[in-house]
Design a protein that fits this description.
heterodimer; A: 114 residues; mainly beta; seven-stranded mixed beta sheet; four-stranded antiparallel beta sheet; 0% helix; B: 114 residues
């Protein structure tokens, strides 16, 4: 979608290796989010950011870390990937104002941990 | 924190029928209720939203209703078409503090049979 891109789109990795997913936005929105989507669980929040270097945990943050050194980039890192982290990962952004409240999602990253 | 329940998990209808998806929320501080549609292989996209000062909102074949007293809101799709087949997510969001982060329902897979 215009305004937000995720990379890579697909990733296959081995258990125990570190993995970093990137989210890049051109909307200058304050809030950025990482979700994972699994069958039967919907969208679960991993971590979110409310500004540069300001991040907080979501409901499924164990095993994940994030960093936001610039407004436009939000990185999700799996320090040591496990098979339970096989999932589709979505980044989303939203603004602070009433007109920017809706989430704009990226196209997702399919991650397979073997 | 906020808890959003969404029903049904799967909904199968014939083309031309109406479809209704229901959500309940727990946090009375929530004041913004968006609905997202996710097509296969894509990220969710906002299709309609409603704020707590409004009881109903329509956009062509889709409508959303909100009952603040009962803390539930619903998505109504009339004259369904095969292209309406997708996963639909409801969400609830507040205006400040922890409630500012949106909470999603688990999703409804809508199947429209030609």
């Amino acid at each position: 979608d215009a305004g937000i891109t995720q990379s890579p789109r697909h990733k296959v990795t081995e258990t125990g290796t570190p993995v970093t997913l990137r989210c890049h936005q051109t909307e200058n929105h304050r809030y950025m989010y990482w979700y994972r989507q699994d069958p039967g669980h919907g969208l679960r929040l991993i971590h979110y950011s409310y500004g540069v270097k300001d991040t907080d945990k979501g409901e499924v943050s164990d095993g994940y870390s994030v960093s936001r050194s610039k407004t436009e980039d939000f990185l999700l890192t799996l320090e040591s990937a496990t098979s339970s982290q096989t999932s589709v990962y979505f980044c989303a952004i939203s603004g602070s104002g009433r007109e920017d409240e809706k989430l704009l999602f990226g196209s997702g990253t399919q991650l397979s941990v073997l | 924190g906020e808890n959003v329940e969404q029903h049904p998990s799967t909904l199968s209808v014939q083309e031309g029928d109406s479809a209704v998806i229901k959500c309940t929320y727990s946090d009375s501080a929530s004041n913004y209720f968006p609905w997202y549609k996710q097509e296969l292989g894509k990220g969710p996209q906002l299709i309609i939203d409603i704020r707590s000062n409004v009881g109903e909102k329509k956009d062509q074949r889709i409508a959303v209703t909100l009952n603040k007293t009962a803390k539930h809101f619903s998505l109504h799709i009339t004259e369904t078409q095969p292209e309406d087949s997708a996963v639909y997510f409801c969400a609830a969001k507040g205006a400040s503090g922890g409630s500012y982060i949106p909470t999603f329902g688990r999703g409804t897979s809508l199947i429209v049979h030609p």
